[in-house]
Amino acid sequence: MTRTIPLLHPLDDHGRLPRVPLDEASRLPQDVRDAAALAAAAAKPVLSPAADIARYAHPHYLRAEPTAFGSVTFHFKALTGREPRPETPLAAWSDSELTYEQKKELDRQYDAARTLWSQMRLRLRAAPVMRRAAPLWQGWKVAEAGLRRVFAAFWSTPDGMWRAQLLKLTDAERAALAAARAWDEVAEELSLLAAEHRREVGEDEDLPLETVAQELGLDASGWEISWPDEYKAGPYSWDSRTPMVRRIDAEAKRQRERLAEVARLAPTLA
Predict the structure, then answer these.
(1) What mean pLDDT comes out for the span 183-197?
(2) pLDDT band at 52, cuts 50/70/90?
(3) Is residue 231 within 8 Å of residue 184, measured between CB atoms?
(4) Which of 134, 172, 179, 213 could be joined to 150 by an S-S link, Cβ 3.0–4.6 Å?
């Protein structure tokens, strides 16, 4: 019985098969080859232009460079601190054409931009406060030293001059309290600015107030600035005094207790 064998290629005019490359694909039926071509095309990744994260980049973003330690350094045009707070666009997180890694890269980019922005914002906002603070700190130091100097003068004050020296002491106390309140007021402003900056960037990227002062040509190495909570009485605290006021009150109390002791021992001197 005869059989008909289907040919992949028709015979030529001489009844012979044409010379074609005998690769593996050419031996397959056309429908099989078509299916294989479609599968290969589907397996090849095709990047959509919409998947480019550049359209979500921060307006000041320039480029990103890998470091030798496996991290990435982001470069930006100079920020002033007056710009809106850098935040990863919500549209980027809802963009289904972006991969998770692309979204995380955007997050890191905006974190870096927010750090630079917050540092510049701190410089911008702290500068005028620091210029006011410099003479107030000097005034506080002079007043505090003056209070101790007037008290120390009792050791050399003649017996008949103690009342006059007590008057000088009360004047020195008032001057020290006024200087303490003035310093604590400006110190609270700086404390709040520093705390807000620290919340934005974390401790690792914190810009110290002392550094900001140095950039302004000021020496803030000795400035005493407490945490913001120290300047406001809490809901369960009865003491509403600020840090330097508490210090002056404690110093004045110590001095008065010493004078009261002397007055008890030698009442005619009081």
Answers:
(1) 97
(2) confident
(3) yes
(4) 172
Nearest to 214 by CA among 160, 143, 134: 134
What's the rounded Cα separation, in Å, for the pair 240 and 253? Answer: 17
Is residue 113 a contact partner of residue 78, using CB atoms and an 8 Å limit?
no
Nearest-angstrom CA–CA distance, 169 and 174: 9
Distance between CA atoms of residues 207 and 114, nearest Å: 13
d(CA 211, CA 65): 27
- In this structure, what are the phi and psi dihedrals at residue 76, rounded to the nearest 5 degrees? -135, 155
Confidence band, pLDDT 50/70/90 cuts, at residue 41: very low
Q: What are phi and psi of 6, to 5 degrees?
A: -70, 135
The count of residues in the chain is: 270
215-268 pLDDT, tens digit each = 999 999 999 999 999 998 776 667 789 999 999 999 999 999 999 999 888 876
Using alpha carbons only, give the angle 93, 110, 92 rounded to the nearest 5 degrees. Answer: 15
Query: What pLDDT is stored for residue 53 in this prediction?
Result: 87
C-alpha–C-alpha distance, residues 144 and 177, integer Å? 9
CA distances from 246 to 139, 151, 177, 197, 253 (A): 17, 18, 9, 27, 10
Closest CA to 197 of 132, 120, 107: 120
Give the closest residue to 189 by CA, choosing from 129, 235, 233: 129
Contact 109, 115 (CB under 8 A): no
